[in-house]
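Q: Here's a chain of 348 amino acids. Please give me its 3D structure as C-alpha cells.
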Amino acid sequence: MVSTTLRKIVSPCWRPSVENDGQNSNRGSETGCRVEGLWWYKDSGNHVHGEFSLAVIQANNVLEDYSQVESGPLSLEESGPQGTFVGIYDGHAGPEASRFISDHLFDNIKRYTSEKQGMSADVITRAFLATEEDFLSLVEREWLDRPHIASVGSCCLVGIVCSGVLYIANAGDSRAVLGRMEKSVKEVKAVQLSYEHNASYPSVRDELRTLHPDDPEIVVLKHKVWRVKGLIQVSRSIGDAYLKRAEFNREPLLPKFRLPGTFEKPILKAEPSILVQKLYPEDQFVIFASDGLWEHLSNQEAVDIVLTCPRNVGSLFDLFKFKPFICHALVHVVCSLVFECIVNNLYH
C-alpha cells in the first residue's frame, strides 16, 4: 500500500480544506509543512526514488486546486511495480473536479496497472478516461440539486517514475519541466516535457477546427483571449460536463454556461497527451506546476530557481518578496502549485 508516512506528510499540506475551517494554523505542525501566511511549503520529503519539495500559495478561502504525491506500489499486487506518482489538479469553477481526481485517479492507475501487468501510456490513458467517466456519472446524479457541478472541471498533470522510466501525462495547461545537466557547457538546462492544451496556441486552435469542421465558432477571440466556444481557454480537462454532454446544456445550468443550440460530440476531451522517456544520470529534477507559475516564469528561470534553492523551497518566499510582480501573480491565480521531484540516478 502507499506509504502511510508520506500520505500523512503530503495530504494535509496539498489537500487543504476548500473552506477555511480554522485548521490552517495547525497544518504546518501536524505535517512537517511550514506556513508563512498563505504560503505553505515543505523543504524536503522522501519518495522511493529520492526526495521531493513542495510549495503552494493560496489566494482565498476557496481553494480549487488539489495535488498529491504517492510513493510505493503502483498496482494492486504486492509483486507489482514500485514507483512515485505526482499529480497536479488545477480546478476551475469550483473544487469538486480536482478533489474527485485526487481521490480516484491514482486508484484507477493502480487498477489498470494490475490488469495490464505493468505501467504504460495505455494504462495512464485508461485511468484518465475512467476518472472522467466516473466524475460525469457523479454530475448526472447530482446536477439537478447542484447544477453548478456541470460547469466544474480541472486540468490534470501527472508524472510517474517507474523502473527508470518517466511518464508525463497532461490534459490542460499545466506544465512539467525537466532540469537536465548539459555536460558540454556544465549547466542545467530546462527541457519542457508536456504539451499544453490551451486555445492561445495556434496548434490547439487548428486541432479544434479539425475536430469540429462544421462549427465556425469552435474557437472565439474574446477580450483579446482565445477561448473554446468563447467560454474556456483549455481544450482538454476532466469534468466540464456542460461541454462534454449536451444533456447538461440546459436549465438549471446558469445561462452564462449554456450554449445556443446543441452539439453532437464532446467539445472538450479528457484524453491526455503522454510522453514516455528513459531517465539518465544527467536528469536532475522535474518541476510540476499549474499555468499561473508559467505565465510569469520561463522554463529556464524556474530551473534556475530550483538550482538556487535546492531542497529549500521555503527560501523561495524571500525571493518572491523581492520580486513583487511574481508574488502578486502567484497570489492571484488562486493556487500556483510547484512540485520539485529530485530524480537523480533513477536510470539504474
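Q: Can you summarize the key feature?
A: Confidence is low (pLDDT under 50) at residues 1-31, 317-348.
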